[in-house]
Every structure is written in C-alpha cells, then in structure tokens.
Design a protein that fits this description.
Its main location: membrane. By secondary structure, the chain is mostly beta strands. Helices cover 6% and strands 48% of the residues. Bound molecules: 2-acetamido-2-deoxy-beta-D-glucopyranose (12 copies).
C-alpha cells in the first residue's frame, strides 16, 4: 500500500513537471544590447544505462534555467552566436546560429547532461557529463523577424530527443525586444487556419484505417544542375506515423504508403551530401538525405525529415532526425536490400522500406552500380525505440 501510494505521488508529481512545461525566457547580451532572445518550452527524453538495464529519463527545461554568461556569446567574425541555457548540476541546452544575411538558422542544437545527477538519472552506471550535437535541425527565419512555433516539434540529438512545444526566438536582433514580425514555422501555418473544433461534432468519423498492404515500388531519380542523374532509388516506402486524430479524438497509429504515381520528386546533389525529396499530393513531404564520408568512401542515410499535413490532423506533423546511420554502403556501389526494414526516426514516426536499391553518389550512365547486398540489415539490428516513460520510476 505504502509503496503504491508513494509511486502514485511520484507519478503525479512527475506528470505535473512534464505536462506543464513552462516557457523560459533566455537572453544573450553584449554590453547594453540583446543579440539573442528566446522564450522556450522544452522537454527531453534521454536514454541511459544502469548496471542492469537501459532507462529513459524524461524531464522539462525548468523555470530556473538561465542563459550562461560564460559560454553564451553574441558571436564574432570567426565564431557564431551561441545561446547556452544551463540548469541543474551541469545540464545545458545550446543553440548556435548562423546567417547568410537574409535568413538565419539554428546551426547546431547541443544537449549536455550530467549522469551524476541521481534525481534525473537514478541508478546510472556512469557519472559522465555527456554532450550530444545535432546540426541543421531546420529552424529557419528571416533576419529581423522572430521565429515562432507553437506546434510541438521533436529533434533527435544523439540518441536523445528534444521537443520544443512553444518557441519564440530571434538571433542577430536589431533591437532589444523580439521583433513583432514573425516567421511562423510550417507546422503552425495550418493550425492557425485549421477549422474550428466544433466542426468535429458534425463530421462523421473517418472509417477505421485499413492496413494499406505492401507499398508499390517506385523508381526515383534526382538530376544535377547540368541535367545528369546524380541519385537513383528504387523502393517501396511506408510511413508509420502516430498523431492526434480530430475525427477519432485520440492519438492514432497510421500506416501510409507512398504511391509512386502520385509522388513528385525533387532533391539535390552536392559533393558529400545528396537529398531525395518525395512529395505526395502536396500534403506529405519526405526528405531522405545521404552523406558521404570522403575519408572512408562510405555513404549512409543520415537524415530523414517528414512533414505531413493530413486533413485529420490537428496541425501539420513535423519530424526530423539528422543523426541517423542507415543504408550504409561504399562509394561506387549501390545499396540493396530486399527484406522489409524499419528505420526508426523519432518515437512518433518510423519509415518502413521494401525492396530498396539506392545509389546517392557517383551514378554513371543513369544506372545502378553493383549492389552491396552484404550490407542489408534485418529490422531487428536497428536500435529499438526508447522504452516507456515510466521505467524512470523503477528505482
Ligand atoms: C548502454 O550499454 C550498451 C551495451 O554496453 C551500449 O551499447 C549502449 O550504447 C549504452 N547506452 C547508453 C545510452 O549509454
Ligand atoms: C554533476 O553532478 C554532480 C552531482 O550533482 C556534481 O557534483 C558535479 O559538479 C556535476 N558536474 C558538473 C560538470 O556540473
Ligand atoms: C540565403 O539562403 C536562402 C535559402 O538558401 C536563399 O534563398 C537566399 O538567397 C540566401 N541569401 C543570401 C543573401 O545569400
Ligand atoms: C556545429 O557543430 C559542429 C560539430 O560539433 C562544429 O564543427 C561546427 O563548427 C558547429 N557550427 C556552429 C555554427 O556552431
Ligand atoms: C535588419 O534591421 C536593421 C536595423 O533596423 C537594418 O540595418 C538591417 O538592414 C535589417 N536587415 C535586413 C536583412 O532586413
Ligand atoms: C495544411 O493544410 C491546410 C488545409 O488543407 C492548408 O490550409 C495549409 O496551408 C496547409 N499547411 C501547410 C504548411 O502546407
Ligand atoms: C555534370 O556535373 C557533374 C558534377 O556536378 C560532373 O561530374 C559531370 O561531369 C557533369 N556532366 C556533364 C555532362 O557536364
Ligand atoms: C508502427 O509503429 C508502432 C510504434 O512504434 C509499432 O508498434 C508498430 O508495430 C509499427 N507498425 C508497423 C507495421 O511497422
Ligand atoms: C475528446 O475526448 C475527451 C477526453 O477523452 C473529451 O473530454 C472530449 O469531450 C472529447 N471531444 C469530443 C469533441 O468528442
Ligand atoms: C495510382 O495508382 C493506384 C494503384 O496503383 C491507383 O489506385 C490510383 O488511382 C493511381 N493514381 C493516379 C493519380 O493515377
Ligand atoms: C532535405 O534535408 C537536408 C538535410 O537536413 C537539407 O539540407 C535540405 O535542404 C532538405 N531539402 C528540402 C527540400 O527540404
Ligand atoms: C569518416 O570515416 C573515418 C574512417 O572510418 C572516420 O574516422 C571519421 O570519423 C568519419 N568521419 C565522419 C564525419 O563520420
């Protein structure tokens, strides 16, 4: 009984902490002028090891977080502006910015956590301070405007995730207050124009989704600026997305196949990165980015971004993970795998692939080079998604 009671109190206390993540205001100054200001609600999900298992710590950026004056900076000619929010014993969330004069973006999102903090990481088998970084998280805004995003957006940083739910921020500020002109994130653009929720009482519920079966295999190619094919892919793709359904008034898990005949293809090829961007009916955009390591001559699928704006969603769904390591192969060869594979991206989105052959670099004469079948993985060889949240309490 006592244990039950204690557990219940803990869970309630924890829900209060996680559920009500408050916006924290952070500011970086040089002399009298403010160069970066952010009003953020953020929560973290961090897997860690104990002596016997792997647990996941879940917590929010606390009100007490402050911009660290030592490590934050407005930047110089040779260094970028940095906002470093510190909290607790040695935890930190860092955002570094870059600009090209007309747009600015979050260049790196950094998370530092101190495994010695037993209140957050009970039973951790290490006392290290861990730092993980993710680059190009996709936070962009026009210079002299405030970036605004109310929709929860999850970023994977190392093995951990950071979710911003409600962010207003500006870097390279011309004055000391956030600009009244806003660059609204894609995910918010539809939620503000979403039909009023009262409509849901009159609409008939959507029929229960039927499993879509195996997706059709599509052939996709991306051309260089000079018109030659630089990336080739042939595969079936299925999205596995969990989102809040307006018609069913609950979170649902939906499988959606990409239909090659309804999908438009774009993308880009650079020396060490190549992106394949598939857009289905203007409402689903999937961006697969491959990176080449020119030292080892190996390439991998390193980033997956999904933007889905489906009619039954409360607002567009956005998910991005830029530190992936899938579909590894060697320059000059294609990657091939006939078995179905599950590529975990974020906890609410994974991508199932079927009969894949891709070659993101060094395509010659519009054809695949010999496949590298030896590098085909079974679904189980990828790390499973983080365990349920309440594992946190089993100490
Ligand atoms: C936990 O331990 C396993 C096995 O030693 C290791 O592969 C994994 O990376 C560790 N995970 C974390 C989060 O440290
Ligand atoms: C990590 O946490 C421990 C325990 O709270 C503390 O003694 C130590 O100073 C912290 N490390 C850093 C770098 O802040
Ligand atoms: C900045 O980058 C954006 C997007 O890549 C581009 O459209 C714009 O022209 C660039 N501006 C300058 C001044 O380079
Ligand atoms: C982002 O992080 C990478 C790797 O940690 C580093 O090389 C790069 O300089 C950082 N960029 C910025 C703008 O901070
Ligand atoms: C931003 O505002 C500052 C000060 O008002 C101005 O000097 C600068 O040209 C503006 N930059 C852009 C890209 O509009
Ligand atoms: C999402 O869909 C709605 C309704 O179809 C549309 O008004 C809105 O512009 C779309 N948003 C984005 C970001 O595409
Ligand atoms: C097209 O551009 C690529 C590099 O961007 C180059 O390797 C290739 O030779 C060019 N092809 C033609 C026909 O110019
Ligand atoms: C979809 O994702 C959920 C949650 O990760 C998982 O339980 C389910 O098995 C997945 N379904 C398919 C068909 O991949
Ligand atoms: C949605 O579900 C919640 C609780 O599950 C309930 O309070 C609410 O009335 C429902 N809304 C509609 C429109 O059915
Ligand atoms: C695309 O193909 C599917 C089945 O393969 C078919 O049901 C659908 O009508 C096609 N759509 C278009 C726009 O041709
Ligand atoms: C696709 O993702 C890559 C890496 O995140 C990014 O550089 C590129 O601009 C994206 N392309 C589009 C069209 O969004
Ligand atoms: C590229 O590969 C080399 C050799 O395997 C490795 O040491 C290096 O860390 C890799 N670089 C990147 C950016 O992954």
């Amino acid at each position: 009984m006592k244990l039950f009671h204690a557990l219940a109190v803990l869970i309630i206390a924890w829900c209060a902490v996680i559920g009500r993540s408050q916006a924290v205001t952070l500011e970086v100054r040089a002399g009298d002028s403010t160069c970066i200001k952010a009003e953020l609600s953020a929560s973290f999900s961090i897997p860690y090891n104990t002596s016997s298992s792997t647990r996941t710590a879940q917590f929010s950026l606390p009100d007490s977080a402050t911009a660290d004056t030592g490590s934050s900076s407005c930047g110089t000619d040779s260094s970028s502006p940095w906002l470093v929010a510190v909290f607790g014993p040695g935890h930190a969330l860092g955002l570094s910015f870059s600009t090209n004069g007309s747009l600015y973006n979050v260049a790196n999102l950094t998370l530092q956590y101190n495994l010695s903090d037993t209140s957050v990481f009970p039973g951790a088998d290490s006392s290290d301070v861990v730092t993980v970084v993710s680059s190009s998280v996709g936070i962009w805004a026009t210079v002299n405007t405030t970036y605004r995003c109310e929709s929860p957006t999850t970023f994977r940083v190392g093995g951990s995730t950071v979710t911003f739910s409600g962010a207003r921020l500006e870097a390279y500020m011309p004055q000391n207050e956030l600009s009244p002109t806003e660059s609204v994130c894609m995910a918010d653009q539809a939620s503000t124009t979403a039909p009023p929720t009262t409509a849901s009482t009159t609409t008939t519920p959507a029929p229960a989704p039927t499993p879509p079966g195996t997706p059709e295999r599509g052939t996709y190619s991306v051309n260089n600026r000079n018109g030659t094919v630089c990336l080739l892919a042939r595969m079936g793709l299925q999205l596995n997305v969990s989102y809040f359904s307006l018609s069913q008034n609950k979170t649902v898990q939906e499988l959606v196949n990409l239909s090659p005949n309804e999908t438009s293809v774009s993308g880009s090829c650079e020396a060490s990165s190549a992106s394949l961007v598939l857009t289905q009916e203007q409402i689903t955009t999937l961006n697969l980015t491959f990176t080449l390591n020119s030292t080892s001559n190996k390439y991998r699928l390193s980033a997956i971004t999904l933007l889905a704006n489906w009619s039954d969603m409360r607002g567009p769904f956005q998910a991005s993970n830029t530190s992936l390591d899938y579909l590894r192969s060697t320059l000059g060869r294609s990657y091939m795998c006939n078995a179905e594979q599950t590529l975990a991206v974020v906890p609410t989105f994974s991508l199932n692939t079927f009969r894949v052959q891709v070659q993101p670099f060094e395509v010659t004469t519009n054809q695949f080079a010999t496949g590298n079948k030896a590098l085909c993985y079974s679904p189980c060889s990828y790390p499973p998604p983080p365990p349920p949240q309440f594992l946190f309490f089993f100490f």
